[in-house]
Design goal:
Strand order of the largest sheet: 1-2
Helix content: over 70%
Order of helices and strands: HEEHHHHHHHHH
Radius of gyration: 23 Å
Number of helices: 10
Shape: extended
Distance between the termini: 29 Å
Strand content: under 5%
């Protein structure tokens, strides 16, 4: 079944990439399609932008998700259920809905520009949507906002499976919160960090 539904379509797609034509009148053209593809400036720009998102957005999102998970795992924190729901909620938000919201928030006369102008951080509105550089920044912010909560859930569930006695023993030995995080939390979360890195990388590359 796996061969039929996965490998066979992959092989057929590869063979099809070496052909050109319309309908059933396909002719074998060798690597001409690939030569034309890699000389297409639009394609190369799309590849470059995708890797920018990959190299910037994925690390920021994973670090932020881990930081939030550690904060929400603190037993002293009140209203943890509310904060967990609020941070995870963007993940289940409709793609169309959050796209429209970000479009209005980051518009030339949107709330973000008004806020920055009122704080005297900028003199004139930033073109978040139309400027090539700021459009990339807006996309990175939007993706981070949407999927940070998704990765946070994985980290949070893993943190809750770590025996509290490990941290208690570390505190008795004089380890501060910083040392505990890098010497206990990070090593014990390595499998889930690898998992979220892989899934986030795949998700980002699908933006292509």
């Amino acid at each position: 079944m796996i061969s039929i539904f996965y490998f066979y379509p992959m092989v057929q797609a590869l063979i099809l990439s070496f052909k050109s034509g319309r309908g059933s009148n396909l002719q074998f053209v060798g690597i001409d399609n690939y030569i034309r593809l890699f000389s297409d400036t639009t394609f190369l720009t799309a590849v470059k932008n995708t890797f920018i998102y990959l190299l910037v957005q994925v690390p920021v999102m994973l670090v932020l998700a881990l930081f939030i998970a550690v904060l929400l795992n603190d037993d002293r924190l009140k209203f943890k259920g509310f904060f967990r729901t609020a941070i995870f909620l963007p993940t289940v938000t409709s793609l169309v809905a959050y796209s429209v919201v970000f479009k209005y928030m980051f518009g030339a006369d949107g709330i973000v520009n008004k806020f920055l102008v009122n704080l005297h951080l900028i003199q004139e509105p930033i073109q978040w949507i139309t400027d090539p550089f700021w459009a990339k920044v807006t996309i990175i912010i939007a993706i981070t906002w949407r999927f940070t909560g998704y990765n946070m859930i994985f980290y949070l569930s893993s943190l809750q499976n770590i025996d509290k006695s490990v941290y208690e023993a570390a505190r008795i030995d004089g380890a501060n919160a910083f040392t505990q995080f890098f010497k206990i939390t990070i090593p014990l979360l390595k499998p889930i960090i690898l998992f979220t890195t892989i899934t986030s990388t795949i998700g980002t590359l699908q933006l292509f």
